[in-house]
Structures are given as structure tokens and as C-alpha cells.
TrEMBL record:
InterPro entries linked to this entry: Ras-like_GEF, Ras_GEF_dom_sf, RASGEF_cat_dom, RASGEF_cat_dom_sf
Residue ranges occupied by any Ras-GEF domain in the UniProt entry: 39-301
Organism (species): Streblomastix strix
Any one biological process term the GO annotation gives: small GTPase-mediated signal transduction
Transmembrane segments: none
Name of the protein this chain belongs to: Ras-GEF domain-containing protein
Pfam family, one: RasGEF
Amino acid sequence: MPKLSKEKQFPIPILPEIFKQFLLDPTFYSCEIQLLQFDPREIARQLTLLESGMCRSIQNIELVDTAWMTKKNVIIGKQKRIKVESFNDPITGELIRKEEEIEDDIIKVESLTQFAPHVHEIIQHTNAMMKWIPTCILSGQDIDRQAEIVTYFLDVGQELLNLHNYQGIFEIGLGMTWDRQITNQTQMLKKLDRNHISKWNEIKEMTTLKGGGYKGIKDLSEKAESPYIPIIPEILKHLAKVDISGNIVDGLANIGKARSIWNIISRLRYSLTRPYNYAPVPQIQSFLRSLAERSCMGDTKAGQ
């Protein structure tokens, strides 16, 4: 009887030939490789592995007492102003005006990332993805190219649905089907075939704010079996809502609040109790990170 291998058996990654040439090359990022050269299924897989890793990194302590919302005042400079005081002389009754030059601190409110570093990481990633997607689409030189990029993201979205990556669907939905920069391109959207128009409408319906917000995705995630990735911003919103109630009620510990927080965190933990059975390709994940980061820095060619 043959021995069973204990090594994980992953499907072979779907990689373009140009990418294979640079997998072991330290100068990989200097090569002219473009997003659309990758199979959309592999992009969805690697994005899912990337985001599931981010979710697993979040510690429970980061999710209580709205730790990710902790802020501080930072002095970033000084500004001068004239302070004017007017008063009547107690003896003569004459109005006296006094001017004094003083310096005020210029205050900037910043988030303290050290209390919830992994939560901040996925928040920044989410914002970067939602900015990168429309930037990538509009980087197309004409409406045909833009329609091709939209089609590509819809195919990525379909695979994200298959993988139960609802966080990724959230990013594509808000970054594309609800982004006015894209929805205003009516001539470009007419270039989509019937199949992709159907996918567009499906993702848009799932990410609508009607019915309590993203009801389509939330309904799917509530029924999903592990592994799946829930919408992290929605989890944070629910935790913040629960945290409004005090820790003490009528002199007693607020057990209801503690139970609600525990249920939310437990559901997040359950979502990734089982791993995704795909081989990570660190270069693709770094590629995705770099494209999103470049778009946030104003690089209009990110992902062309």
C-alpha cells in the first residue's frame, strides 16, 4: 500500500510565461509585466491568500474598545497671531487696547496604529484597492482598453465569489460598480458583453447600501462555511456600534456587550479556521501590493 504524502498538495499556479522567467530573478520588478497578463483566477487566488493572511494576523485585543480608532494630537508646527485684549481703566474709565504677539501650536489628529497594527494594515489595504481599481481602469488609452480592464476585474470578481472572498468583492464593488468615475463612462460600459453585464449587475446588487448595507454579501457570508473572508470594515462598524454601550450597567458588568463582542470576534475567527488550498506566489502578492500603493501615490500608470 503506497504511503500518503503529508505535504500539502496545491493546484499548480496559473502563471504567464513572462512571469515564470522572472520568478527567481532578483530584478523581477524591473521587467515590463502588466496586470492583464495574469490569469484573473490566479489574481483572485493570490489576493485571497493575501487578505486571509491579513485577517489571521489580527489579534483579539485589537478588536475591543475600538482600539483601531485611538487617536492622538500631534504638534506639527507653530503659528503666530496677535492676541487683542480690551478693558476699561479702573480709574479714568478710558478704553485701553492691548496687543500681544503669541505662538499657537498647529495640531494634527493622527491615528495611533500601535494599538491595532493589523487592523490598520487591512484598512489601508482596502482603501488602496478601492482607489487602485478605478485608477487602473481609467489608465486605459481608449474605451476599448478600459472595457477590457473592466471585463478582467469582473472575471476576478467571479473567482472571488467562488472563493468566498467577500472582502475582495466589497473592494471591487465599491471600487468599480459604485465608483462614479467608472459608472459615468457609459460608452465604455456598452462595450461589455451580455455575460459581463450580468456579472456587473450581480456585484453591484451585492454591494448596494440599500437594505441595511451590502446585504447581498452579508447574507452569503452568514451562510458560508470556512474558509471565507468577511467584510472587515463591516465587522469594525458592528464592533464600534456595540462598544458605544458602557462596560458597567447599574453597577454590574455589561455581560450583554461582552457576549456581543465575543460573538463577532468568534465569527471572524471561524471564517478562517480552514486554510485556502492554493499555493502562495509571494511575487504576485507583492505585485498587487505595489500596484495599490502606487495608485495611492498618484501613479496613473499603476496596473496598465
